[in-house]
Amino acid sequence: MRAELSPIPPVINVEAEVAYWREQHANGALGPGSFGHYVPWIKFACDLLLSQPHASDAQREEMFQTHYALQIMPRLSEAQARQFIQQCWNQLYSSSTARCAPPPQLRAVPA
């Protein structure tokens, strides 16, 4: 019998993720903007997995769209935020010691 893969990594340490991305920013991997522009998206990426572990990619995209629309003065464009969330998920899944399903995929819905 095959063990079912976990839909999300069993441990998601938000503070460790913020520290990881802070280091990446310090090394120039996120560009010249303020690291503070990325923190809300790191937290959103983690929260979305933790609060909706079985959501479909389409449901996650809809939640992203809603969250982005509620931003008063977003510092990242919608495309930049989507791409960064994807990077966060890829990092979370690749650093997990547990076998997981592939990371979710955010895809913009064509207008």
Keywords:
111 residues; 51% helix; globular; mainly alpha; 4 helices
Q: What's the SSE blueprint?
A:
Layout: H1 14-26, H2 39-51, H3 57-69, H4 78-95
Helix pairs in contact: 1-2, 2-4
Summarize the structure in words.
The protein is an all-alpha fold. The mean pLDDT is 92. 51% of the residues lie in helices and 0% in strands. The protein has a domain at 23-95.
List low-confidence stretches.
Answer: none
| Order of helix and strand elements from N to C terminus | HHHH
Look at the helices and sheets and give the structural class. Answer: mainly alpha
**Shape from CA axes?**
globular
Continuous helix count: 4
Radius of gyration: 14 Å
Distance between the termini: 44 Å
In percent, how much strand structure appears in the residues? under 5%
Q: Tally of extended strands?
A: 0
Helix content, binned percent: 40-55%
Query: If you average the pLDDT, what whole number results?
Result: 92
Largest sheet: none
Structure at a glance:
The protein is mainly α. The chain is 51% helix and 0% strand.
